[in-house]
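Researcher: Let's do a round of design. I'm pasting the structure tokens now; please hold your answer until I've finished.
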């Protein structure tokens, strides 16, 4: 009985059948190339992932391979194609070239747009954090995603500030009200696009983790 081709062996003929804009590539585990997985990369950066699954022998699964992201994928956006590994490369390419590749292109564009928006939001938050930290001696800054956290140790107490887009949370532990007023003033004065009501003060919240 003839041995069926592996995913790595199928990648090259499928890429040829798809046309000159796709290139086959390996999937590595350390320095070792896997035989049961491979990639197809388009000249515009889009990628497809080909794999054989241990629980579904003699079949190839093809899905979109997207950049690292926290984009919330919708139903159907990560669907895959399942074909027998002895299917002709031309037939597999025809399945890919139909609605599947058009749908993957749309999802890839959404992911790129989302990542671009997140990068801009992170850059803006980093700028806000630097502005506030420069006004508060001893402030330590940490960035997680699109949120900035500032921590100031006082004697006694501490101040913690969370900046997320146009929202600022100010949390005080055992700090006098005059410190709360000063921090709120610094935020509202030097981040003018963030509205802080006149009656707003820093508040004590033991469970707020920054």
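Researcher: That's everything. Go ahead.
Model: Designed sequence:
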């Amino acid at each position: 009985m003839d041995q069926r081709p592996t995913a790595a062996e199928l990648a090259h003929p499928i890429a040829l059948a798809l046309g000159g804009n796709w290139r086959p590539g390996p999937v590595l585990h350390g320095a070792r190339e896997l035989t049961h997985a491979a990639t197809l990369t388009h000249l515009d950066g889009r990628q497809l992932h080909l794999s054989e699954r241990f629980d579904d022998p003699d079949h190839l699964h093809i899905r979109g391979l997207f950049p690292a992201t926290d984009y919330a994928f919708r139903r159907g956006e990560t669907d895959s194609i399942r074909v027998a590994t002895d299917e002709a490369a031309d037939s597999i390419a025809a399945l890919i070239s139909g609605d599947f590749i058009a749908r993957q292109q749309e999802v890839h564009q959404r992911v790129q747009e989302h990542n671009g928006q997140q990068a801009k939001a992170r850059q803006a938050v980093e700028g806000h954090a630097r502005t506030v930290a420069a006004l508060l001696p001893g402030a330590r800054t940490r960035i997680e995603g699109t949120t900035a956290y500032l921590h100031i140790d006082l004697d006694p107490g501490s101040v913690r500030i969370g900046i997320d887009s146009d929202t600022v949370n100010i949390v005080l532990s055992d700090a006098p009200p005059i410190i709360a007023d000063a921090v709120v003033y610094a935020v509202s004065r030097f981040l003018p696009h963030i509205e802080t009501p006149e009656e707003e003060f820093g508040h004590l919240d033991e469970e707020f983790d920054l």
